User: Fold this.
Amino acid sequence: MEIMYILYGLLLIVSTILSLKIVKLYQIFVLHFVINFLAVLLLQSHKDLYGLGLISTYITFFVSIKFLKDKYNVDTIYSIEGLVHKIPLFSFIFRGVTLMLGLFPPFLHSNIVYLNLLTSKNNVVVLDLILLLLFDFIVFMRLTNNIIFGKPNDKIVYIDISKFYSFFLILLLILNISLGVYILLNI
Amino acid sequence: MNSVVFLIPFIPLVIALLILFIDYKKVIPKISIFFSLLIAGLSIYGTFQQFKYNTPIISENKLLSFDRLSSILTLYVAILGIIIRKYSYKYMWDEPGYKRFFILLNFIFSSIYFLLMANHILIIMLAWIGLSLSLFYLLSFRSDSKSAVYFGSLAFWFHRLGDLFFIISMVLIVRRMDNLYLSDLKNLWLSSINLDLELAAIFLVLAAMCKSSIIPFHFWLPYTSEGPTPVSALMHAGIVNVGGIILNKFAYLFLHTEYALNIAFIFGLITAILASMIMLTIPDVKRALGYSTVGQMGYMIMEVGVGAFSLAIYHLMVHGIFKATLFLESGNVIHQARKEPNITKSFSYKVFLEEERKFNKNFQFLIGVVVLALVLLTVIEFLSKKDLSNYYAALVFLAFGWLTSFQLFNSFFKVSKEQSLGILISLVASFTLIVIIYSFIGLAFENYLYGENYKKLFEAANLSFGLVSVAILFLILTAVVMWALSYYSNYGENGKTNLKNKVILVYRILYEELYLRKLFLSLFKMR
Assistant:
């Protein structure tokens, strides 16, 4: 098991360097999914809830990048910026997505990672979880600074996400947060 | 009935949720202010309960607690919150994202309240991280400006480094103590001896240094002036104090360490002196104010380093009120200047802009001799006593006197044209009054927050005679050298160009912010 933790740690280091270079949204999706899915090996408790948190995260992330691709033909993180000024509903949802990807509280899988970080007795596991936080933080910063923030382009006609999809995605966000808070109340 | 105080951290979240569904702009700040008055009311009730019963109120699930430290700080933050929301009502009116601003403001206040009232280590950790995140969103509020986003991101990187140190510290504490509740940990720390918690304490000090902008983690603070004025006020008055607050929350941890408080003392002292000196060379007013805050935070951490934990709390509150006033007033002045460019005649105009009066060179020399004599007398007094542990508070006042007078007199005499004996006497008198009030209230805080345990914290600081001597010598040497450089740069004869070049070199090092600006800007090229 120890060898697996060390190998995962090395994979995290490589992925962190890769996360600084890749620009395509689908590549970021796949890399983030693989790394965070494999993190279940490190967890001592609440693995099932962690998986549930990840599912809601990746559904919302996938729908968001599909929306950007369909409406604005956006493939990379540099193709569009300043969405917070033009399409507030989608920006609100995408902000939630980036927070989930960045392992920020009070989301379900984030709280589980921090709980395992505090209670783990294995130093390699703690180190791996810290590297995971670093990797997720870099993904968060790249998505936030390049898509949500920035100066919007006046030549683009911005169309916000439909209320139907937004209701579904916000519901997923709320479920994720509620379960996250539930975990905190029952620690 | 006492449990009603636990509503405090949730109320800002309720405000944020309500604002989300309100479109009518005028209602948004009114709801915010109304509920923040409720928070202030609950804080006053909780403080009254603490005065009456002197036992912390702990929630049923032990996740939150309301003790004496929480009572003072929640009240302080609640009042600050009311002022900032009231100010933002009109100031942010014409800015795009008015609703978003108030939502983010309430999130950051919620994080602060959770941090102040958390009893479970995980909740403290999540509140600590939530605070960094909310600050990043507020600093990058004007997200169409590349520099605002860049410096907001830079600040977030430093805060994340602080988060990393904090996480490591908490992991080490939980591993060693096998307990996740702060109330239990405090009792264990007070009743046990020689627990090996050195590394955990050092990482906690490093985390506090990142959040409170202590050298070498200070770079982010002076460059965050692109955020809205209320955010700058909140940051300088509230957020940067979090380092001192967390060290106070975990104060009894330091009873089981040898070197952690010494590290805080050294870095605090270096920051207090260097940041104050850099502040005097920076031409940009906002950056200069940033360095002024860095200096004061250095001083706060230094107070913790000598074991004066409660004094640090008092200092951060007073500094916070002063700085918030400064930033909010500067915003007002800018607004007024946009409407009316002519400066109104007032006392300030008379002091700073009228014709220069003749300055007596011998008078300045005399002041230098008198101050030097007083300092030497104090040092001899220190050295002649055998037991220095009673004089830690005096060391703090010595540093306070040096720093504040250095800033006060240099700023005043550098900027003003008025150099009369009357002004000098009034400055010295008000300064003396401040020191007396400072010491009186500091003692009151000591008894309120720590009772008899405050002596243990002073003993835990265990500053060695060597360290104290070096600190005093460093202070005296810096004061003498800077005074001499200042004197000879103004009055040196033409032949003394060597000395003038040295003055320019020292000035340049400070102006370039110890060359750290170039280093950090070249390291953090983000895209």
Observations:
- Chain B has a mean pLDDT of 82.
- The first helix of chain B runs from residue 11 to 20.
- Chain B touches chain A at residues 61, 63, 96-97, 100, 120-123, 125-126, 129-130, 133, 140, 143-144, 146, 149, 153, 156, 160, 164, 167-168, 170-171, 174-175, 180, 526-527 (CB under 8 Å).
